[in-house]
Write a structure and sequence with these properties.
Strand content: 35-45%
Helix content: under 10%
Structural class: mainly beta
Radius of gyration: 15 Å
Strand order of the largest sheet: 2-3-6-5
Largest sheet: 4 strands, antiparallel
């Protein structure tokens, strides 16, 4: 099956790779992840790391996130997306790890980048 993906620019003035090397990778960073990838309280906010190492990007990809849960999910943003293997999501002020878990706040993500 043929796919058409064209990445126009990347983070920090990196040069796009050749078109056959472009990849779209997507997944869900679940509210009930444990260990290193769980929701963590940080001052008056909550954050969560997401592993994208299985996408095999060779440089940091362009990432889009959205969140869905049961009612009380706050706004989120990409906080640290400078790596080819992971990114960090930061919830707005007042959010707690407990609240993110109890509202089942899942992060749906799509990453577009290069694998060669």
């Amino acid at each position: 099956a043929k796919c058409d993906l064209k990445i126009l620019n990347l983070f920090s003035k990196q040069q796009p790779g050749p078109e056959p090397c472009a990849r779209t990778c997507s997944g869900v960073s679940r509210y009930d992840d444990s260990g290193k990838y769980r929701w963590i309280d940080w001052y008056d906010q909550a954050y969560k790391d997401t592993d994208i190492s299985e996408c095999n990007f060779t440089s940091p990809p362009v990432i889009t996130i959205t969140m869905k849960g049961y009612g009380g999910c706050p706004a989120v943003k990409l906080w640290d997306a400078f790596y080819a293997y992971s990114f960090r999501i930061l919830a707005e002020k007042g959010a707690t790890a407990h609240g993110m878990k109890s509202s089942a706040c899942n992060i749906f993500w799509t990453a577009n980048g290069f694998v060669c």
